[in-house]
Structures are given as structure tokens and as C-alpha cells.
Amino acid sequence: MKLMKVSILVLLFLLSLLSMQDIILMVGFSMYPTVGPLAIGLCRDETIKEGDIIAFRYMNHSITHRVISIQGNTIVTKGDHNDFYEVIDRKDVKCKVVWYLSLIPPESVEKLYKKMGGK
Length: 119
Hints:
Layout: H1 2-19, E1 22-27, E2 38-44, E3 53-58, E4 61-71, E5 74-78, E6 86-89, E7 93-102, H2 106-115
Antiparallel strand pairs: 1-2, 2-7, 3-4, 3-7, 4-5, 5-6
């Protein structure tokens, strides 16, 4: 299993170099269960629309959430697991996540989530 994940990481790195896409690391439960609490993603600078997953800057942090609505330069985002929204400016968007791989198996995520007080 470890060899497979290392191989995937190497492949992603090479793919990133060849396709000029960025690789991002996603950490946290805000996009759970869509994206696990530890995941890598490929990002592109392309047009975003409602429903897309984007990476953006918010209060000096890098965040990955889903686009809920877009009105001009204002974008409303929300983590799939969150109860609250973030309103950001289009200039704070880093990229659109076009592919991701959760690095923790779903059954391990469930155990971890329950240990942290989730239901």
C-alpha cells in the first residue's frame, strides 16, 4: 500500500511538471466526506463555477472549499462538512481543484473522526 501511494505521488509530481498544474495538500475535515482529512490535489488556473472545489486564501490561511455562489467578484464558499460560509473576493482564489486523492482509507477516517468527537 505504501509503495502504491509513493508511486502515485511521484506520478502526480511528474504530471504536475508536464501539465503545468499545481499540487496542493488538503488537511482537515471541512470537505469530509467528499475529500478525506489528508489529501493531495491537482489544481488549475481555470474558470470556476458553482459546485467546483477551489483553493483560496482566507485570513492568512490556505483553504479548500466548494463554491456555493458567484456574484461578480464575490464568491461564497462552504466546506461540505461545515455549517458556515466564507465570502471571498475572486482575487483570493488560487486555483480550481480538478483532481484529488485522499491519503487515508475511508475506514481509518471514520475511526479518526469518531475519536475527535464526530458522529
